[in-house]
Amino acid sequence: MKRTVFFTSFSVAMILVPFSRSDAADSRLVGIWSAQSYVIEGKENPMEGIFIFTDRHFSANTFFRVSGGEMEDANANAGTYHTEGDRLVFMQDVQIHVRPGDSKEPLFYGKRVEEAATYAIEEDRLVITFPSTNKYLCKRIQ
């Protein structure tokens, strides 16, 4: 099957628009972080994946085992972010959570979801803590 892809100047122009100062982010976040653990309800769960932060955008793709299904659980999130003191505010253009062992919500998809967390950076370690007290523990790799 032949596929045709069209690009518009509008989509390119959106990328080139300068940001306002309210979109500022902590430059220490910029880089690539390896997902190490996902702490849920106080229990540390091994996690694999990667978090990428530019000066304005992020992408996080992770695998971990929590819900007890045959397949691993997964998160895929991407969009823009900014910081306000120790707050990390994500505006997720894509938010996908796969929980094969969760009978209530095995698949969640959100679009334009705003989610705030707190964060701390100590040397090469990043801790992102959500209001639920669940945490991502990451290590800088670049």
Helix and strand succession? HEEEEEEEEE
Helical segment tally? 1
Quickly count the domains.
1
Please give the number of β-strands. 9
Low-confidence stretches: 1-22
Helix content: under 10%
Task: Report the CATH topology name.
Answer: Lipocalin
Q: Which CATH class is shown? A: Mainly Beta
Secondary-structure-based class equals mainly beta
CATH architecture: Beta Barrel
The overall pLDDT average reads 85
Q: In order across it, which strands form the biggest sheet?
A: 1-2-3-4-5-7-8-9
Main pleated-sheet profile? 8 strands, antiparallel, barrel
Radius of gyration, taken over Cα atoms and rounded to an integer in Å = 17 Å
What's the end-to-end separation, in Å? 39 Å
Strand content: over 45%
Task: Tell me what the structure shows.
The protein contains 1 helix and 9 strands. A hairpin with a 2-residue loop joins strand 1 and strand 2. The chain is 6% helix and 55% strand. The longest helix has 8 residues, at 9-16. The protein is globular, with a radius of gyration of 17 Å. By secondary structure, it is mainly β. The chain has a single domain, classed as Lipocalin (Beta Barrel). It has an 8-stranded antiparallel barrel with strand order 1-2-3-4-5-7-8-9.
